[in-house]
Amino acid sequence: MEKCVKQYYLGSMSQGGFKSDFYSEIAKDGVFTYILKGGAGTGKSSLMKKVAKEFEKTCDVTKYFCSSDPNSLDAVFVREAGVMVVDGTSPHTFDPDFPAVKQVIVNLGDHWDNEKLKENTDKIISVTKSHRKLMSRAKSYVSAMTKLFDDTYYSVSDDVLTEKLALAVQRLSQKIMPKKQLNQGSVSLSLVGAVTPMGYKLQSETLDSFDNIYSLEDDYFCASDAFLKSVAEQAAKKGFDVVVSRCNLFSESVYEAVMIPKLKTAFVASTPLNLYYSEKAVKVNMQRFYDKDSLGLKKKRLKMNKSACAKLLEEATQTLASAKSVHDEIEKYYISAMDFSGVDSYSEKIISDIGKKLSVKNPD
Length: 364
Fold this sequence. Notes:
Layout: E1 7-9, E2 12-14, E3 17-19, H1 23-26, E4 32-37, H2 44-55, E5 61-66, E6 69-78, E7 83-87, E8 103-107, H3 114-118, H4 121-156, H5 162-176, E9 187-189, E10 193-196, E11 199-202, H6 204-208, E12 212-217, H7 222-237, E13 242-246, E14 255-260, E15 265-270, E16 282-285, H8 292-296, H9 299-336, H10 340-361
Parallel strand pairs: 1-5, 4-7, 4-8, 9-13, 12-15, 12-16
Antiparallel strand pairs: 2-3, 5-6, 6-7, 10-11, 13-14, 14-15
């Protein structure tokens, strides 16, 4: 995608804990993955930032950020080389399915001082347990939110004017996708929205980098979900590759954004959860696709759900912020015990390997 930012989250907190669709990227044909292992503070994110910096000016590089610490990288993908580098530690544990031929483990723990860490055994165990308790609490808040979001979604599902919505999607599809491509388009999954220590945040830079943006203004999630699913289906049938982002705060698959790179077009559900806004976006009023009379009968229930979810999101956010502070404490112990020259050597080797793959694919 020309001049388009590609930044996503590797995954996010859900009612079942950390949830990610990222493994489908690792499993793709032609992708080789370096899986980084090692505790907090061992330099995994720094290594991936070096890889991204080395290639992003000349290559198609996708960066995946940590939803628990949005300043930290969880993965980087140099697409032309077919090389992925990913943090393979909990909560997003990855292990090789085809060791050496499709994935390889890089153990940054080889470069820490075991004896120095053992001197702080009790402190490390204590702060690690505190972090786990905070993450468990955050999961409880998210689980409660999911029940309420589900209730809102399903309570209005029968109120969606499906025929009117289908006609609107058909007209728009004919406008922006006039010519059918030769092949069936693909549908891939990448996450643009997540609960973070700063609230529910979208990777807005990614969305705003598209030339054409449609903002689906929807208080109840359901009509926009149907709209997005229909757009994605239409685009794929016409041969356009589609990137879908699902919101992990629902128990079922609910779409939050659909991106069509070749058309430089993105569709984003603007909801009470993400409050998406872009000056250049074309606003689509999704309320016109609901039966107003039927919605009016549920007004009190829907208002209560919205208010309760806002409070739960605030609590989840504050808890994740506390968890991040504790995680920073854990990192300090490992940083003090690390020999980062060894990590630098790994960085140089991975960068060199990627460079060799690129030179083979793009010989002078």
